[in-house]
């Protein structure tokens, strides 16, 4: 249908993100609060040190168009990251969707947040109707060949990670619900703590020293606490100095 003579690149002849729908009105349900908050925490803590920030694209609940033979087929990952592409589409526009034949770079990692209605498809346990598009597992493993695929059970707070090995996903045995990803110089793990005033296990990124990467809010709180501690140390130092002077019979001028 799109064959030309001489053949032209799919980037030139197939739809762009401006042409393809960015929403699916027939898709049942809307993301719940966990599906809104968890991707934000992943966004805020995903800072691989070996990539500049303007060469990293992350997205959640965004149409991912993956097959130039069927340009309308897409998946909508809960969260994914692409490395080595501009944060903006063609360095100028916020993306409406991610179209692989236009971008030329596939996602490096995809994360799905399991729920009872999506668990079997997310784990590749459903049989495909040949008349329907392939499921998520098949798309990520066989079409996009995403190097890492993670699933997080929001009810059991269990993380499972699969790595592409010989064309198939192989599950990686995790230690303490953490996985170091050397290509990113980052680790992904389950953290127990407060995020957006909600205390529960969350999925987030950690650095090479095994410390959780801080969000901007946490960084501000940390700086404020460090400043408070410095002020307290200075106050104590001043009080000791005053006490020493008075012990020598000198009344310090405190004005």
Shape: elongated
Q: Percent range for helical residues?
A: 25-40%
Structural class: alpha+beta
User: How many helix segments?
Assistant: 6
Keywords:
255 residues, 6-stranded mixed beta sheet, 3-stranded mixed beta sheet, 12 strands
Describe this structure in words.
The chain has helices spanning 10-13, 33-45, 100-103, 119-122, 136-143, 216-247; strands at residues 56-59, 64-65, 74-75, 79-83, 98-99, 109-114, 148-153, 158-165, 168-172, 178-181, 186-195, 198-206. The mean pLDDT is 89. With 255 residues, the protein is an alpha+beta fold. The chain has a six-stranded mixed β-sheet. It is elongated and about 100 Å long.
SSE order and pairing:
Layout: H1 10-13, H2 33-45, E1 56-59, E2 64-65, E3 74-75, E4 79-83, E5 98-99, H3 100-103, E6 109-114, H4 119-122, H5 136-143, E7 148-153, E8 158-165, E9 168-172, E10 178-181, E11 186-195, E12 198-206, H6 216-247
């Amino acid at each position: 249908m799109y064959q030309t003579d001489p053949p032209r690149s799919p980037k030139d002849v197939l739809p762009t993100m401006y042409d393809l729908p960015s929403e699916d009105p027939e898709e049942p349900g809307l993301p719940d609060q966990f599906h809104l908050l968890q991707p934000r925490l992943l966004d805020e803590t995903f800072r691989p040190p070996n990539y500049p920030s303007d060469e990293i694209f992350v997205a959640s609940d965004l149409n991912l168009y993956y097959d130039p033979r069927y340009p309308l087929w897409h998946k909508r990952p809960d969260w994914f990251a692409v490395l080595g592409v501009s944060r903006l589409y063609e360095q100028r526009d916020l993306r409406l969707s991610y179209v692989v034949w236009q971008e030329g770079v596939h996602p490096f990692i995809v994360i799905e947040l399991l729920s009872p209605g999506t668990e079997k498809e997310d784990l590749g346990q459903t049989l495909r109707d040949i008349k329907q598009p392939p499921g998520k597992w098949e798309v990520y493993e066989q079409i996009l060949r995403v190097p890492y695929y993670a699933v997080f059970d929001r009810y059991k707070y269990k993380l499972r990670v699969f790595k592409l090995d010989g064309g198939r996903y192989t599950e990686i045995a995790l230690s303490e619900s953490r996985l170091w990803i050397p290509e990113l110089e980052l680790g992904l793990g389950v953290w127990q703590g407060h995020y957006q005033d909600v205390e529960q296990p969350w999925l987030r990124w950690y650095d090479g020293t095994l410390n959780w990467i801080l969000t901007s809010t946490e960084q501000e709180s940390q700086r404020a606490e460090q400043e408070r501690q410095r002020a307290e140390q200075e106050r104590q130092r001043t009080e000791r100095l005053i006490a020493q002077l008075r012990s020598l019979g000198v009344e310090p001028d405190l004005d």
